[in-house]
Each structure stands twice: as structure tokens, then as C-alpha cells.
DNA sequence: CTTGAACCTGACATCGATGTTAGATCCTAC
DNA sequence: GTAGGATCTAACATCGATGTCAGGTTCAAG
């Protein structure tokens, strides 16, 4: 598929898809005319990239991480280097803290929301 | 307490604390000489502000939200306006999605980490 | 062909919280 | 009073993903 369809199916802008390629996160074949041609796999991959960005990883670390997982299910393919594993463990801890914070904030919002809806019936 | 101590106790930089004040998130008394003097409550408040920032809320929305909660436990004090409640419900949904994404990414990292540690014994 | 939509590259803009620096003032201890 | 650490204001810098725009090329359908 070409870039427009991939953008539509993933909800990620064409700009971002080109950026991902530039960062080495996403590879594309080229048509004779120079246009990008993506395999079906790319959809899952892009979604995974987005999730990792949302988890606060930077493109450089994602680039290291991606070779260690299959596109389809995110399971491991290559084996991570010890150095990378150290990084990933740290990221994992950071994500854990982030989740804790988010749950806290969500609870706070819930209290305010509930208080308001109760006060008004 | 003064700004240095508050910074130390919350882990938030002095720069950020001044920024919070400028954004209307944090109020401080002033000494005759013009230095900020914070009440004990400020510690909890700053931590809560940080959590909300981490949850992706912008300072403007946090500023609207804060009057609706007590410093200590985050429970509601003032009642949110209907407009604000609408916003908060949307934020809550966004946070939910964010949590889902984070859990996904954490699982992905776990798989890669575990695969690496198994491959090496 | 030709036309219009889709795509290309490259450059510049943006956003928001935070870092950093400079120069001045305050506060505390001696 | 004075030295030095803490604080003040104000301005500018940063970071990274993404938006946007311009000018040119490709592709598919008539």
C-alpha cells in the first residue's frame, strides 16, 4: 500500500510516517517512480511505534528495540544486547511509574467528575 | 518554607515552581524582601501538579481543575462547571487510552527483556 | 495527452515545560 | 557590616515529534 492508505489505516500523519522512515523505524520499498510502497505488516508496526512513542521512548531507542520484535505480535525476534536490556529495564521502570501516576490522576479526575454530577443530581 | 526546600522535597526544580506560580497553579506568600514563602500544603499540591502534567494535561486545564480539589487528598472542594466536567471526561478517556498503551508497551518490553535473559541463561 | 489527486523533498514553524544564564537583591551567620 | 549562599526577575535556549508550505514529480483515469 502507499503512504496515504497507511496513514488512513493507522491514524498517523504522512509527515510522521516519513519521519519514522528517516529515523530508521520503518522501511519502505519504492516504486520505479520513487513512491513508497508498504507491506501489510507496516500497519501493525506503525501502531506499535506509536505506542512506544506514547510510552515516552525516543526514536533512537525505538530503533534499537524494533529489531528485537516481530511485527505481528511484538514478540522477540533478534536478541537484545546486554546494554540495550539495561536500557529497557530502566524504561520499563519509568513506564511503571508513569502508569501509577496516570492511575492517580484518573482517580482524581473521577472524584471531581463524580462530585460534580452528584452536586447536580 | 522557601523555594529551595520545596524544590528539594518535591523533586521539582525551582524553575518549574516559579513557572507553576506564573501559570496560576501555585500561590506563595512573600516575605518583606519579596521571597516566596510556601505553606506545608504546597508539597502535596506540587506533587499532584506533577502527576497531572505527567498525565498530559496542560497548565491551563490544571489551573481550572485545581480549585475543585483539596490539597491533601485530591478530593473535591469547589464544584466543577459543566463545561469543565465535559473537558475532564474527555481527559479521563485520553488517560485511559494512555494507560492501555503503556501496559501494551510494558508487555512488549517484558517480552524482549525476558527473551534476552533466557537466551543468556 | 491531459488533468487532478497523490506523492516527493526540503525547509521552516510550533508547542510547552524546563534548563540556563546574568545581574541584582535578600537573608543569615559571623 | 560583611561575606556568601539563597532567591529574585527576565530573557533566551532546548528538545522532539509533528504541522505546514512551496515547488516539483508521479500515477491513474478520462
Automatic annotation (TrEMBL), chains A, B:
Coiled coil: none annotated. The keyword DNA-binding applies. Residues 1-68 form the HTH merR-type domain. InterPro entries: DNA-bd_dom_put_sf, MerR-type_HTH_dom, MerR_fam. Pfam families: MerR_1 (PF13411). Keywords: DNA-binding. One of its GO terms (molecular function) is DNA-binding transcription factor activity. SMART domains: HTH_MERR. It comes from the Bacteria. CDD domains: HTH_MerR-like_sg3 (cd01282). This is MerR family transcriptional regulator.
Amino acid at each position: 500500500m502507499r503512504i496515504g492508505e497507511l496513514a488512513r489505516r493507522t491514524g498517523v500523519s504522512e509527515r510522521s510516517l516519513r519521519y519514522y522512515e528517516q529515523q530508521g523505524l520503518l522501511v519502505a520499498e519504492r516504486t520505479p517512480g520513487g513512491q513508497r510502497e508498504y507491506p501489510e505488516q507496516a500497519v501493525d508496526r506503525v501502531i506499535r511505534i506509536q505506542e512506544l512513542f506514547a510510552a515516552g521512548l525516543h526514536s533512537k531507542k525505538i530503533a534499537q528495540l524494533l529489531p528485537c520484535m516481530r511485527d505481528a505480535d511484538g514478540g522477540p525476534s533478534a536478541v537484545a544486547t546486554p546494554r540495550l536490556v539495561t536500557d529497557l529495564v530502566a524504561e520499563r521502570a519509568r513506564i511503571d511509574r508513569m502508569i501509577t501516576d496516570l492511575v492517580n490522576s484518573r482517580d482524581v479526575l473521577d472524584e471531581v467528575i463524580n462530585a460534580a454530577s452528584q452536586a447536580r443530581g
